[in-house]
Amino acid sequence: MSTGLVTRGLRVAVEGKEILKGIDLRVERGRVHALMGPNGSGKSTLAFTLAGHPGYEVLAGSVTLDGEDLLALAPEKRAQAGLFLSFQYPAAIPGVTVANFIRTARQAVRPGDLVPAAFRKLVFEKLETLDMDPAFLGRYVNDGFSGGEKKRLEMLQMAIMGPKYAILDETDSGLDIDALESVGKSVAALRASDEGKDTGFLVITHYPRILQHIHADEVHILIDGRIVKTGGPELAEQIERDGYDGVRDEVASAGV
Q1: Were 61 and a residue from 10, 56, 92, 145 both cysteine, which residue would form a disulfide, CB within 3.0 to 4.6 Å?
Q2: 33: which strand partners?
Q3: d(C-alpha 103, C-alpha 138), whole Å
Q4: Spatial distance between the Cα atoms of 236 and 207, rounded to a whole number of angstroms
């Protein structure tokens, strides 16, 4: 069986306009891939397409999750298959506590796998792993949260879900330096845990700064709906130094 979250020749349109123009990408479990690109390059389009957003039309190509046709699954079935999406702008849900929310989410993805006592134990273990105050559980989901708190709550959700593959869509968006470092430490802590060490990560970002806190095994540059360059962590340093125009010029001179 083919393993990994594998995208081949993926072309996607939004409202009749083609945004992704043939994406080939493989994310393996236990590794971190960073997808970088300027605004409008198609990064979030890829994230929402993988998650099954109905507003994104797949024109061609395939996506498999450990050999299973991901595109044939409804969004909730994709989550049950092991896919997790961290949103760039998490929604607030006044009146719903964090405790109720994560319990309902876990039950939806893994129905009946933990008795209440075991679930409670898991939650408090993950709070300790992420160095989060248990008082968080009594707050309403993202209601009055700072940007950093919203992103840390998503890290807690991810820890509770225990996905095979996690897509972090511009997790650094709107975060100050301290909050960014906190999120980076959260991801590092999850990767070091027994459950998280086998999770494959796709970290989608505009700026390379988050990669100072989350080590990427591979970096991919997405420009105008195509992955134009792939390399190691040094590629993020190149973007920091030369910007995306430098990559554009390099690709143009190579005739790609």
Answers
A1: 10
A2: 202, 218
A3: 13
A4: 9
> Alpha-carbon torsion 254, 41, 62, 235, what sign?
positive
Residue 162's region, left for phi above 0, alpha for psi from -120 to 50, else beta, is: left
Residues forming a β-bridge with 165 = 83, 200
Can you tell me the distance from the alpha carbon of 218 to that of 235, in angstroms, rounded to the nearest whole number? 9
What architecture does CATH give domain 5-254?
A: 3-Layer(aba) Sandwich (3.40)
Alpha helices in 86-176 (DSSP H): 98-109, 116-129, 147-161
Taking the C-alpha atoms of residue 103 and residue 113, their distance in angstroms, rounded to an integer, is: 12
Q: How many CB atoms lie within 10 A of CB 18?
A: 15
User: Measuring CA to CA, which residue among 166, 175, 220, 236 is closest to residue 43?
Assistant: 220
Question: Whole-model pTM?
Answer: 0.91
